Amino acid sequence: MALAPDIIEQLARARADLRMGIPIVLQGAEPVLVLAAETLTAQRLADVLALGGEPVLAITARRAQTLKARAYDGDLARVLLPEDATPVWVQNLADPADDLRAPMKGPLQCARGGDVAAHRAALQLCKTARLLPAALVLPLPDARAFAARHSLTALDLAAVTPALAERSPLHPVVNARLPMEVSEAGRLHIFRPEDGGEEHYAIEIGRPDRTKPVLARLHSACFTGDLMGSLKCDCGPQLRAALAQMGAAGTGILLYLNQEGRGIGLANKMRAYSLQDQGFDTVEANHRLGFEDDERDFRLGADILRSMGFSAVRLLTNNPRKVEMMEASGIDVAERVPLKVGENRHNAGYLATKAAKSGHLL
Q1: Which one, 2, 12, 36, 132, has least CB within 10 Å?
Q2: Is 336 a catalytic residue?
Q3: For 316-342, what is the mean pLDDT?
Q4: C-alpha to C-alpha distances, 297 to 105, 166, 259, 332, nearest whole angstrom
Q5: Going by C-beta distance under 8 Å and a sequence separation of 6 or more, which residues neighbour residue 145?
Q6: Please, which residues bridge with residue 79 across strands?
Q7: Which of 354, 362, 220 is nearest to 293 (CA)?
Q8: Is 296 a known active-site residue?
Q9: Of residues 294, 299, 303, 345, which has the active-site annotation?
Q10: Is 23 within 8 Å of 44 (Cβ atoms)?
Q11: Closest Cα partner for 122 from 50, 34, 207?
């Protein structure tokens, strides 16, 4: 039926359900029930345990390393739940906030062997829902009937896996003139993804020649730095310096991508900040949370540039990874333009870590 939601729309529903603490069903060779650890309640855990079977807590290999849990599956571990498991026990494994005060969380027993495609998809769904990457997963033989009986979102794993690997197409919504302090000849373009995710923006300065490399910046949203003037990062100064440079040049494109906290979302970014207050650097904090160093997808920027008619840029960045991803996505980087601003006593260590561990040219 044409009115039925397709897999992209079903994924959007699934993410919303997980954020609200509602279970979802993944149907594959070994169908499972999935709940996000972060939003797990005592009642829902009791209901899951009452179903029988052997539920596991799926966590990423990064988080497993901190917990000294065996990641037999390479990129993830499946921690067996004890009989007296509580939501607090589950969430303490998922969230590192209490790791230093109560480091002894094991020994943890982990499952090995069998198909983990559903567990992998569950973790990716948690990540893209901007939740902690940890999911309670229970084998569910009669999945389709169970989902229908309890009005749960049920997804076909064979369709979910490729859909999660693809980035959602972006479409222009509207653009309008926007006079700014740096240039009265400003225009704001709004782009919306098909999957119901966050919109992304392009700020066009002047009328750039589409046949020549345009001065461009891929800027990831930073609520704390861009809006609040945070001294813990250099994002706000970079944003303002890039716009000022484009204003002085008369033309430019600043892509404002809603990938807060290197793609982990503002709540998880604040969790990382809390870990930094405990003495961990920015990369270590991400790993303890279960994320990679950087979860952003800069191909979004290439998609927007192409849709606006640009094929080459002079890229304002200190991050070689942005250059590599632009080139790999078919956008020629004619020049890397350094953007070294905003260092202070609060972010000196953060910048040093970016240079040492993430390869930034600082």
Answers
A1: 2
A2: no
A3: 92
A4: 34, 11, 8, 17
A5: none
A6: 57, 110
A7: 354
A8: yes
A9: 294
A10: yes
A11: 34
